[in-house]
Amino acid sequence: MSDVPALEGVLTSSEVLRTAEAIAEVQEPAGAIPWFRDGHLDPWDHVQSAMALTAAGLTGRAEAAYEWCRQTQRPDGSWASKYVAGRVEDASADANFTAYVATGVWHHWTITRDRAFVERMWPVVRAAIGAVLSLQTSGGEIHWGREPSGAVKPEILLTGNASVHLSLRCAVALAEVVGELAPEWELAAARLGHVVERHPERFADKHRYSMDWYYPILSGVLSRADADARLAARWDDFVVPGLGIRCVADQPWVTGAETCELVLALDAIGRPDDAREQLAAMQHLRHDDGSYWTGYVYPDATRWPVEQTAWTAATVILATDALSRTTPGSGLFRGEGLPSGVLAGALEGTCSCPANR
């Protein structure tokens, strides 16, 4: 079992383990991890929570969560967008939610080296990536998802596409583990990375949201110079010194998960001091039981919403692991062990942007 992550002066290993146990306490008998006890589940946050359990050494709990994914995957490779107590509440499919299982399975493999687990989950990953790539356009971007009727949701989301890019890279790495070739996935990742990096006009305008600010960095698409420039351009819009970062630029509301994802992005581009400062800043959201409040409205000194979410706690654990380099999975968001973000030469002659016409 790997050591439990800790970061001196921020979180001890005992505190991180208690946070993992708080996640495990909301896990349902079938392995599902809802946002909080008796709350709803979405597949992305479920996998994020499973990853944190693995990082903290609760591998049995994590594997139960992945088994839930295996048992509930639909014939087309997707999952419903929302479940409550085992029932589907929103039958639509979300491309990003569906793809993220590849990220989780790769993360679990890097820590456990459990080949039997990967082989058991490989058909799940393969089907999920097939469902996601059925939504990729000729330009490389990926539609949001599908309605319950099967109709494509036309909106194109930057954060979702950036996250899918990371998941595709994880899927390619998993294919190598099981001895399969996936050149079409590599090309899909290259095309997607290109559009995330070069064509912001193709995405819905969500500039209010901090996720659209940092996710192209977190996904491994941008160079260090471009990432630094992107962060500098809106740092003051989102970062609230001593508290964390805003979820949306025009509201006085800081959120823990977004702050910790920024931590991961900063660490990925070699800015550990800035990352550590942000992880320390958001600790005011920690509850006595090791869980974390979702957010804080600072003019009112009010926690809002009044909920302690498993996925917030999970992202704290993953950020702590990344900065402390504790487990073999700590380099996930630095791209360690993954194919590069863009295939060299893969897009030569195929790009439709003006410079290549």
Describe this structure in words.
A hairpin with a 2-residue loop joins strand 2 (82-84) and strand 3 (87-90). The chain is built from 12 helices and 11 strands. It has helices spanning 13-26, 43-55, 59-72, 95-112, 115-133, 158-177, 183-198, 210-218, 224-238, 256-268, 272-281, 310-324; strands at 40-41, 82-84, 87-90, 93-94, 145-146, 152-153, 239-240, 244-246, 253-255, 295-297, 302-303. By secondary structure, it is an alpha+beta fold. It is globular and about 45 Å long. It has one domain (13-338): Glycosyltransferase (Alpha/alpha barrel), CATH 1.50.10. The strands form 3 sheets. It has a 5-stranded antiparallel sheet with strand order 7-8-9-10-11. A 3-stranded antiparallel sheet has the order 1-2-3. A 3-stranded antiparallel sheet has the order 4-5-6. InterPro entries: 6-hairpin_glycosidase_sf (IPR008928), 6hp_glycosidase-like_sf (IPR012341). This is Prenyltransferase.
Rg calculated over all Cα atoms: 19 Å
Which of globular, elongated, flat, extended, rod-shaped describes the shape? Answer: globular
Strand content: 5-15%
CATH class: Mainly Alpha
Number of domains: 1
CATH architecture assignment name: Alpha/alpha barrel
Indicate the structural class. alpha+beta
- Work out the number of β strands: 11
Taking all residues together, what is the mean pLDDT? 95
Report the end-to-end length measured between terminal Cα atoms.
Answer: 53 Å
Protein name: Prenyltransferase
Organism: Cryptosporangium phraense
GO biological process, one term: carbohydrate metabolic process
GO molecular function: transferase activity
